[in-house]
Amino acid sequence: MTTKLIDILDKYRDKQNIKYKEFSVLLNAIEHDYLETGLFNDYFLGKNLANDLGPFDNIAMLKNSYNIWKSTHEFDMSLNELLSLPSEVINKTKVQIDTEINTLSDLLDIIEKYECKADIEYNIDVKLLHNIKSELTQLNNMIGMENVKKSVLDQLIYFMQDLHINKKTSEYKHTVIAGPPGTGKTEVAKIIGAMYSKVGILKKNHFKKVTRSDLIAGYLGQTAIKTRKVIDECIGGVLFIDEAYSLANETDIDIFSKECIDTLCEALSDQKDNLMVIIAGYETELQNTFFKANRGLDSRFMWRFVMDDYTYKEMMAIFKKKVLDEGWEFLEENALKEIWFREKKDEFKNFGRDMEQLLSCVKIKHGRRVYGKSSDVKKKITIDDMNNGYLLFQQNQKKEKKSAVPYGVYI
């Protein structure tokens, strides 16, 4: 059903405090409809004139009819008067949220309990929390890493209150995530970047992961250019340097590494308002290489998160989650026991990464076992699949150790 323009305009006849944007749109609609289509539009002029419109010899009568209509729908107000009108006042109900925030779950509880409404004013910014609900949930659901979750919570609450902003500048946001491979450092860094862009701490949701090869060139003078280009691409977002200890070594730092680290150190200060750099790696190696290469780096990374090693129970939970996420299942619900992971824990030094490799090995051995059998038994893991997959995992690990490049050899 088509709505008449005049019926729309009649709704505004007695309306007060109309907003300028809305008023401007109405004026444009009237002008456009009259000048472009209104000459022969009965929805605009009314049914009494619908059959009386001849060619252009009725223009004078038509304009007179429009003026008569216009005089009964006049909105006589200047632009200055319109802009001086007070904005629509919303009477807000004040609600005090008194709760201790000790975990990410506490923030999620606030989101579930308190809606984000225009007529309610809270003592904390509930809207910001609603904006990052998905990231908070994702981080909270990650297995283990309780210390890191608390550290991220401290940083988030500090930043959301703008306590890091001083009179002329802001404090460093640069962060260290220390821990062994496979503990979720990259995933945590991505979540941090997404959260901080949504709450306004970062200007955009840009996340770039780099390693040594992305920053260091093979010729003198080009490393600074290459490093600066990467930094410029990340302005407003997050630059994540994985295995940052590979940028230097414990003894003599080569000239290319020094050029890279000096360029990075300068940008950490010059762009601290518009850039968040997150570095990851083993805590001891970072201290003995990266931070040792330039003493100015240490003070620029004021936030330090330490990833805990996964327990055998947590690794079992990670493995089960990966199985289910890939659409597989266990033939018997309780076939996999904690003792299986407890006895083999020392073999899984790369934690989550090793769980991915273990699952791949288990699936390969499963494929051998079910070849030619009914589809009912496929993608259903047994304890035999686990044991045979583990043997394949061990074989692959031995091959990797034999072919590993000695530490410190990068070029």
TrEMBL record:
InterPro entries: AAA+_ATPase, ATPase_AAA_core, CbxX/CfxQ, CbxX/CfxQ_RuBisCO_ESX, P-loop_NTPase. Gene3D superfamilies: P-loop containing nucleotide triphosphate hydrolases. Residues 171-290 form the AAA+ ATPase domain. Keywords: ATP-binding, Nucleotide-binding. One of its GO terms (molecular function) is ATP binding. The keyword Calcium does not apply. Belongs to the CbxX/CfxQ family. This is AAA+ ATPase domain-containing protein.
